[in-house]
Amino acid sequence: MNPALLTREALAQYAVESREAFEAELRTLVEIPSISADPSHQGDVRRVAEAARALFERHGGRAEVLETSGNPLIHGWFGEDPRFPTITVYNHLDVQPADEPEWTAAPFSFVVDGDTYRGRGSTDDKGPALTAFFGALAARRAGVPLNIHFLWETEEEIGSPSFEGGLHHHKGRLHTDAIVVSDTVWVTRGKPSTPAGLRGLKGFILSLETADHDLHSGVVGGAARNPLAELIKVVATMMDGETGKVKIPGFYDEVVKPSKQELEEWAHSGFSVATFKQDHMITGLRTEDPMKVMKRVWGRPTMEVHGVVGGYTGPGIKSAVPPRAEIKLSCRLVPDMDEASTMARIRAFVNEHFPDVQIHEEHGLAPFKGHVTGPYAAAIKDAYRFAFNAPCAFTREGGSIGATKTMEEVLGCEVYFLGLSLPSHGYHAPNENYDWEQASGGMAAFAHYFETVSGFQR
Ligand code: BES
Ligand code: MN
Ligand code: MN
Question: Is 367 in the pocket of ligand 1 (CB under 6 A)?
């Protein structure tokens, strides 16, 4: 190993030298519209997997596209020396749809605007994936004695429905000492954080049909049932729209309160309500108290209404009583809640009070409880400090990554997080972006992390 290539200065120099290649590779990935939610983009999901394989081969690594019952996985690696420890970096290369009208340029054209990179998937999660990749190249160049593997998923944004099956199937080749996920956000720029937990997610749809065609609200209205109005009542009975409080009995029973020590970390994480609002471009919140905001997003479960379908919304008057309606909802879950018991409570409540409302469940994601102690957690903190010259706090994430718990269970090792995205990068938002400060610092953070963990006992 040549430690001279792993100093702060050498890695800064490495980043500058790699910038052109990094931008070219990021352009290739971002310009493939690998939208996992849209069946018409299946071919693009396949293309991004092939592009990833080619990326490894172009840079002296090896890779294979692994089939699952759904979208493929990409397993890429540098080194397979049995004497060395193995680290696996997880990212996803599928993206959210991008049909928001606010995009200032085509979402799948990669725009370089000074130090900012714009395009769908630039920060979630193609930019961080490539940053870790270039960090690995730096570590390899310095001869770090570590097998660096990558596991890139292509159906994270639809809740990883085939991931577990795929992992079981390919488990033999995926043995690793630990996993590091780069798919999370900092508190804000200059304030790195790594999650001690992620929320889970359980989606469901309520539907109600009370007739098979539009009815005249003058002729039958008053006597006829209105499915749209009834479903709105169901939602209002389940939750308070103003405070967010869920009124399903037992909903909060399994919630583990953040510990004193955790709250202490949060208080010193650099979180500010003003910055939070600015980063996310939101004007009003349910509370302006910083600790309450953090608790709500990181430590409490939610019930959210995503969409209401039914009735007439066109121009002018149409006085029909609609025959059917549908409301799409989901709950974010925190440790130690689980999808099945939460859904069972919701079902029991709806069945009791609104017996003819149908419930359709979607695939759920378990909440994740992270690890804040031990050498791997210390290595993460050290990597941030080294590369960004700032302390990193153990906070939590309000978002969900289904693969985390699955990887721990199937591969039998621990998952840690070295995320690089910022709130202002706009996960899932129009004009999603990533930037060179996070990319160049991130390469150094990953290189340093790889160096540290290469010294751990196998
Ligand atoms: N990278 C995010 C998860 C995330 C969000 C981490 C916020 C940290 C903060 C991931 O790509 C994501 O968007 N997950 C979805 C999963 C869903 C679409 C099944 C989520 O959390 O909504
Ligand atoms: Mn992501
Ligand atoms: Mn996402």
Answer: no
